[in-house]
Amino acid sequence: MTTGYVIMPREKRGKHLCFHQPFLMDATSLVLGASFALAISLVVYQVGKPTPLPLIPHNKLKWFVGDIPFLTKMATEKGAITYAFDDTATRLGPVSQVVVGLGASWASRIFGFGQAIVILADSQEMHDVLVNRATEFDRSKSISALFAGTLPQGMLALPTDDQFKHHKRYLGITMTNPYLARMTPRIVDLMQELVDLWSVGAKRLGSSSTDVIDVLNDIRLATIDVIASITFGTSFNGVRMSLDFLEATPIAAPSERPEIPKLAADLEVLLDTIGDGVLFPAPSFLPWLTRNFNRKWRKAIMSTHDYLRGRLYAARAEYVSEGRESEKAAANQADNVLDMILEREKEDRAKGTETLSEAELIDELTTFALGGSETTATTMQWSVKMLCKHPDVQRKLRAELLTNLPAIAARPPTFAEISDEANLPYLSAVMYEILRCSRTAAAVARDTTRDTVLLGYPIPKGTQVLMPIGMVQQMESDGAKDVTDGLDAVRSASSKQRRRTGYWSAKDVHAFNPERWLRADGTFNPNAGPWLPFSFGFRGCFGQKLALIELRLFLSMIQVNFFFDAIPEELNTWKCHETVTNHPQQCYIRPIPWESMEKL
Ligand code: HEM
To answer: 359: Cβ–Cβ under 8 A, 6 or more apart, which residues?
Structure first.
């Protein structure tokens, strides 16, 4: 008889139990696992989904990285990351955004995993932001960070605070006409050295169109020499050394050059270090990383500072020994920034007002040297490339110079002569067109200091607003006039119906055409269309007037001496390489002295 229970054999019992236990455990862990995976996915989704700013148009974004692959692709393919901003604005309209990493998400805000950068691509609104809305938009922190390692107390790195304002007032006098007039002979002497160098090179060129001189570094050295001469009172003699070398070495090829002077090489290291930081994803770490981990930079900054300190002490000693201290300060004899600073120091001591500390002075001298060389060099390099392609422009420019300023055939021009726009309208037109087409500084950036609105879009405090100045001046044409005019309804009060410039014609907006700057009567019209190479407003380019004088002297002195023959396309491509400025990869010339041209 049985009791109704099935007594299972011990081994079967075990198996029975063993069979059900794992099943029960698997079901539980499946549910748990699924919930866990769901929770993780939700977290990953929340964390990894790039967050654009609401309402503002954007590209299709990739998880975790947002627009980074697109930015990288444009930087690699086109040589300049700023083309990604141009491209986005062209497709998406006057206000758009690129989302870096996680964009405007909470993870970005807390851990710095990215940002949403707003792109403003409308010249009228850009002018308004830069000029009239400075209290809402200050210098971008990520741009300042590029310079903060090298010149922490220089204008390029400072926010718009009292220290910045003091520096700007202190040094502003260097950009006034009387002072620029006194600097002009220094610039002229160094441009003449460049002309002499290219004259020697030209004599050694063969007759083939591929016989060319590589002038990329000549121009860079010339601008370093100029800025050293007008800032520290003495050139680094980079071009002079090249000229001496070429003259002393008859067998040297036209492009052969000696090693560049140590001080110029140091400045190049500093410039390259700043340029390398442009694509660095966490700008706030840059100054710290540069100071602690870049040995090449450390050596260069130390020797630059030693040199600057030496120049400062020597200039002070000279100033006192020459008895200039007792002269009337208003006489202002200085023809270089250092001497000017000494004159100011004397005035300030007499008035009891604040002077600059030694560290501040050194940083501002470095600012001049760095801010004033690469930008101008890049523009000059693009300018010879453009002239090579436009023989008609060269002939017209030379004709204007020889007709309206005949003295230039015998001696270099003075400041008053060369800056006379009414007398030299074509020179102004060529220079403006070179600056319009060269994209030297392709974009400028500001950070919002409070929640604000741009063309109707809400922009939160702390957002970087990038303005593609290079693209706008090259693309904003009457073809999009309806769109631009239509924005009046959403423009800020200070911008409404205040367009300052005309529109470029859609037919030739991309072409190099200096004529666009001339009125029907041949006079120069600086407001013919959008032009912002130096940006605008209180934080616009400090050295604009100096840069324009340098460019006018460069263009007129080279053009009066040489015709730049056409060179093969493959030696004059538009390929670029972008750091702080947008450099051409090549810069070759075939200079032919005009006397030889006339004999041909
Ligand atoms: C063709 C030559 C030049 C171009 C295209 C150029 C362009 C620019 C641009 C676009 C900016 C940024 C402005 C902004 O953020 O709104 C700037 C700033 C600056 N530039 Fe130039 N620049 C040139 C030559 C010079 C020269 C010769 C100097 C000499 C001292 C100079 C000194 C500076 C300084 C100190 C700043 C910072 C100003 C500030 O933060 O307030 N630049 N430049």
So the answer is: 153
Q: Which two tokens stand for residue 8?
A: 């299972």
Q: Per-residue pLDDT for 12 more than 70? A: no
Task: Report which DSSP code applies to 261.
Answer: P
pLDDT at 325: 57
* Buried residues in 145-154 as b, exposed as e (16+ CB within 10 A): bbbbbbbebb
Give residue 374 CA to ligand 1 midpoint distance, Å: 10
Instruction: Identify the DSSP state of 446.
Output: E
Structure tokens at 323: 């008895």
Element (H, E) at 486: helix 481-486
Q: What is the assigned CATH class of domain 46-146+442-504?
A: alpha beta
Element (H, E) at 487: none
Q: What CATH class is the domain 172-441+533-599?
A: mainly alpha
Query: Which residues approach ligand 1 with their CB closer than 6 A?
Result: 139, 155-156, 367-368, 371-372, 375-376, 379, 440-441, 444, 533-535, 539-543, 546-547
Quote helix, strand, coil % in the chain, to nearest 5. 60, 10, 35
Nearest to 593 by CA among 563, 558, 567: 563
Tell which atom from ligand 1 comes closest to the C-alpha of 373.
27
| Domain residue spans of the chain | 46-146+442-504, 172-441+533-599
Q: Say how far residue 54 (Cα) sits from the centre of its chain.
A: 30
Count of helices and strands (H, E) across the chain: 23, 13
Structural tokens at position 383: 């300018």
Q: How far is the CA of 204 from the centre of ligand 1 (A)?
A: 37
The interface predicted TM-score (ipTM) is 0.99
Binding residues for heme, by number, are 541
Same CATH fold assignment for domains 46-146+442-504 and 172-441+533-599: no
What H or E segment, with its residue span, contains residue 372?
A: none
Of 382, 377, 455, 401, nearest in space to 92 by CA: 455
Give 500-528 pLDDT, tens digit per residue: 899 999 999 999 999 999 999 999 999 99
